[in-house]
Write a structure and sequence with these properties.
It is a single chain. This protein folds into 2 domains: 429 residues, 3-Layer(aba) Sandwich (Alkaline Phosphatase, subunit A), CATH 3.40.720.10; 42 residues. Helices cover 34% and strands 14% of the residues. It has 17 helices and 16 strands. One of its GO terms (molecular function) is arylsulfatase activity. It holds the Pfam family Sulfatase. It comes from Oceanicoccus sagamiensis.
């Protein structure tokens, strides 16, 4: 009832609120100050103090599926993005649910907001298809677009960070562009977002702006002046950082003070490293912190612009991340990667210039675990650290008594689309749009949580279900089942009580077999309804993406003989390693 009254009010209002969605990339649960971080994020602090933080907001654990659900309110499988395009298996690529691109049987919120009289703008990472022009954001409801179509891209140049691509492409309103010499991704994305708003300033139409940052996706890069702020911050290592953030998260009230927290078995012994290894790893994390800091600075530029033009007080701002922190470190996955990095991709890993132009930087599993603190796991996995991320909603719709507060209601990325439409005073058309059958939204409207201090919009029978790359989860009530594959996991279903045990330290399926069975049955229904395709036993999303990229590069690219030889050696090495592992 609250949402209906709110929508009626917005529809009748002379000034509909502007809506800005800011999406970080691979940002962990405690990577910003409002969620316990030591990283300087004053502008996100401001949004949190004026807005509402969510302690239990879930995404998928991989980027493109999250983006598909955010923009449509439809499950990622039914939207065509059950897995990222770069990591599809041959079996998956034959399914309409596994195209890796946004189906035409879904309607984006950009389309519906444009129909409702909004200017619709998009800047940053798209990752939902571009080779068919009809998949471009300029053809999916966005009036003005400046976008990078891939899973990630360099933050300084147009060189590719993966063998999958010849170079990092950028498009403006559907046409390829060349980046300026002084390009840095976070600055560029905000520059373009401001220019898009400025173009229509004064015409009395509200705007919807979607900013999709590259921070802090691989390659992790930041201007030197931001990195230097943190050179002394991480010298005590990842376990110390994880413990510090755990305490900060509990002090903020985001999780219970007595919640047990597990240590991931992928976390290395910091004290066992050499002094040089410690120096290098602490620098890696300093660059990561600098990248978050720089993103926050440029978000501040956008907020100051909105204030300067008198629109800040009439703008709803949603900040979140697409998934948890990235644990992948290609250098530890393949001894040949340094050759690929240097000779094929054109990068170095020199400590003195780490994170700067032509530098390839990651943080690895140990610091990724700290970035997700106090939760377990990280990107690609169905543990809380892969799926639970920050979300802040700020703006004129927020009830005054909720400013600076925390909502402990569950929320899922599919919920953002119906929430945004409700804020705009419009709604999804259901299963038919302009005479064409479409997928109906299945997310929930969160407006009652924002306007009426309602405790939750989820009943004890509602579910949040997820699957990508064979890792899966289902949440119902306070319980969750999760399944994680790979050498560091046991490839078994487990049951957890998320309120008492958000760190997922104590599996309780043997204690509550009826609840465990019920959630497994719910998941089976989910897989049937959404066309989930099992992956091979030895499937690894990161390695599959690398394998697909090398094969694609060989097929599509004219390169010199040395490069071809290098690629063939890499493919051969991958085959040998795979055979040896199967024998073991």
């Amino acid at each position: 009832m609250t949402s209906l009254l709110f929508s009626t009010w917005v529809t009748a209002s002379a000034a509909k609120p502007n809506i800005v969605v800011i999406l970080a990339d691979d940002l962990g649960y405690s990577d910003i100050a409002p969620y316990g971080s030591e990283i300087n994020t004053p502008n996100l602090d401001q949004l949190a103090q004026q807005g509402l933080r969510f302690s239990r907001y879930y995404t998928s654990a991989s980027c493109a599926p999250t983006r598909a659900m955010l923009l449509t309110g439809v499950d990622s499988h039914r939207a065509g993005v059950a897995n990222i395009a770069e990591a599809l298996t041959p079996a998956q690529s034959h399914s309409p649910f596994y195209r890796g691109t946004l189906n035409h049987n879904v309607v984006t919120i950009a389309t519906l907001l444009k129909d409702a009289g909004y200017h619709t703008n998009m800047t940053g990472k798209w990752h939902l298809g571009h080779e068919d022009p009809g998949l471009m954001p300029s053809q999916r409801g966005f009036e003005q677009t400046v976008m990078m179509p891939f899973s990630g891209g360099d933050n300084w140049t147009q060189q590719s960070y993966l063998p999958n691509y010849q170079k990092t492409l950028w498009f403006e309103n559907g046409k390829e562009i060349t980046l300026p010499e002084d390009f840095y991704s976070s600055e560029f994305i905000v520059d373009k977002a401001i220019a898009q708003i400025e173009k229509h300033r004064g015409d009395k139409q509200p705007f919807f702006s979607y900013l999709a940052f590259q921070a802090v996706h691989i390659p992790v890069q930041a201007p030197r002046e931001y990195t230097e702020k943190y050179l002394n911050t991480y010298q005590s290592g990842w376990s110390t950082l994880r413990a510090q953030r755990e305490q900060a998260v509990k002090d903020l009230g985001l999780i219970a003070r007595d919640a047990p927290i597990k240590t991931m078995n992928t976390t290395l012994d910091w004290d066992g490293l050499s002094d040089e290894e410690k120096r290098y790893n602490s620098k890696r994390m300093a660059v990561y912190a600098g990248m978050v800091d720089a993103m926050d600075f440029h978000i501040g530029r956008l907020l100051n612009y909105l204030k300067a033009i008198g629109e800040y007080d009439n703008t709803v701002i949603i900040f979140t991340s697409d998934n948890g922190p990235e644990p992948s470190d290609p250098a530890t996955m393949s001894a040949l990667f340094p050759l690929i990095r240097e000779h094929l991709l054109g990068y170095n890993a020199d400590i003195d210039t780490l994170g700067e132009r032509y530098s390839y930087n990651t943080i690895g599993t140990s610091f990724a675990s700290a970035a997700a603190s106090p939760l377990g796991h990280y990107k690609f996995h169905s543990g809380e650290g892969g799926m639970r991320v920050p979300m802040i909603i700020s703006g004129p719709i927020l009830a005054q008594q909720l400013q600076g507060q925390i909502s402990h209601s569950k929320a899922f990325v599919k919920d953002l689309a119906p929430t945004i439409l409700a804020i705009a005073g419009t709604e999804h058309p259901g299963s038919l749009y302009q005479g064409k059958t479409i997928e109906p939204q299945t997310g929930k409207d969160l407006v009652p949580l924002i306007t009426d201090n309602k405790k939750t919009v989820y009943s004890d029978t509602d579910i949040i279900a997820y699957e990508i790359g064979g890792n899966a989860a289902l949440i119902k009530g306070d319980y969750k089942i999760s399944y994680n594959r790979g050498s560091q996991n046991d490839s078994r279903w487990h049951l957890y009580h998320l309120v008492k045990d958000p760190g997922e330290t104590q599996a309780i399926e043997s204690t509550f077999p009826a609840i465990f069975s019920d959630l497994l049955s719910e998941y089976e229904i989910y897989t049937r309804e959404n066309g989930v395709i099992p992956v091979p036993e030895d499937y690894n999303q990161t390695k599959q993406a690398g394998r697909n990229g090398l094969i694609k590069r060989l097929k599509e690219t004219k390169v010199n003989q040395n490069a071809i030889l290098l690629l063939l050696l890499v493919v051969a090495a991958m085959v040998v390693i795979s055979v040896k592992r199967k024998k073991r």
